[in-house]
Amino acid sequence: MKAIRVAVDAMGGDHAPGVVVDGCVAAARRSEDVQVMLFGPENVLAPFVGQADTPANLSVHHAPQVIEMAESPAAAVKGKPDSSLCRGLGAVAHGHADAFISAGNTGACMAGSLFILGRLAGISRPAILGVYPTIKGRCMLLDAGSNMDCKPEHLLQFAHMGSVYSERVLKVERPTVALMNVGEEPGKGNEQAKAAFELLKGSNLNFVGNIEGRDVMEHAADVVVCDGFVGNVMLKLGESIATVLPRMLAEEMTRHGMSREEQQTAARALSLLARRFDYEEYGGVPLLGVKGSVILGHGGSKARAFENMVLVAVEAARQDVPGSISASLAS
């Protein structure tokens, strides 16, 4: 099996480059089917790579510039063509890499992906896919924050992209698609939702209708479609559960005078539950709708997240998600 080449923005993220290198080394050791390409200033990366006992399937590629988290996305991409972010995306654009990952400036990643890779034919707005845990596994939520003001046709495109990703990468047969709304009945919601409902109903997707926020964790659908404003609020709410629930549980256990053994048992169970909401378990999420496999990570990602991010990128590239999205839209 041909190894998948993953270009990595080694300078992207709150804890770069140390945790990026550690995570990528772990991914390279875990799978011989990946070639990890670290992009960043050689003099900055050298100490970290040298300490890591570098495996043969990991390499460093000099990129002298760095796009910082607070920089203006468009200006940074245009003004820093030799940045780790732009050179990594350029490797994908020129066929030297099969996928790109970064936990850096999300806006710059999106701007760079659009400018360097370009949109897929038939896609007006690329979208970030979010992962939401449910009682039956997980569902795909998009858009998760890249498009705040959407037209109904954008939501239809999101549905096609999410359905393809769910089917090809997560191996869900004929994924169900639902529209996030304020009620389940047809005709509910604002004008955007009403028009999107009609477009989805007339598509060849496995559309199951409207759902409400309370239905998501019941796994009412494999793919949930909404604009980026709603999606980002939902995603951040989900992330908070993993940090808030342990504190709430600790307060209740203390209040009820539970023994140490009882508290440890409850804490272990809650810890396993909280992992379902932990973004590091998923590694990163794809930016769908561009001509290449792009995986975005949380700015606070640690080594484990980068390790998983590389593996997510490998699977997305191997399944040719961009090509499958184009085929879905054409049909």
How would you describe what is shown here?
With 331 residues, this protein is α/β, with parallel strands linked by helices. The chain has 2 domains: 4-123 and 289-320, Isopropylmalate Dehydrogenase; 125-279, Isopropylmalate Dehydrogenase (3-Layer(aba) Sandwich), CATH 3.40.718. 46% of the residues lie in helices and 18% in strands. It has 12 helices and 12 strands. It has helices at residues 18-30, 42-51, 73-79, 84-93, 106-117, 152-168, 191-201, 228-255, 260-274, 279-282, 303-318, 321-330, and strands spanning 4-9, 34-40, 58-62, 99-102, 127-128, 130-134, 137-142, 176-180, 206-211, 223-225, 284-288, 293-297. The strands form 2 sheets. It has a 7-stranded mixed β-sheet, sandwiched between helices. α4 runs parallel beside α5 and α6 crosses α7 (191-201). The longest helix is centred in the C-terminal third of the chain and has 28 residues, at 228-255. It is globular and about 60 Å long. The mean pLDDT is 90.
Main β-sheet description = 7 strands, mixed
Give the helices and strands as they follow along the chain: EHEHEHHEHEEEHEHEEHHHEEHH
Q: Average pLDDT across residues?
A: 90
Gap between N and C termini, in Å? 30 Å
- Percent helix, as a range, is 40-55%
| Number of helical stretches of at least 4 residues | 12
- CATH-defined architecture of the largest domain: 3-Layer(aba) Sandwich
Tell me the fraction of residues in β-strands, as a range: 15-25%
Q: Work out the count of structural domains.
A: 2
Structural class: alpha/beta
CATH class (first level) name of the largest domain: Alpha Beta
The backbone outline, from C-alpha atoms, is globular
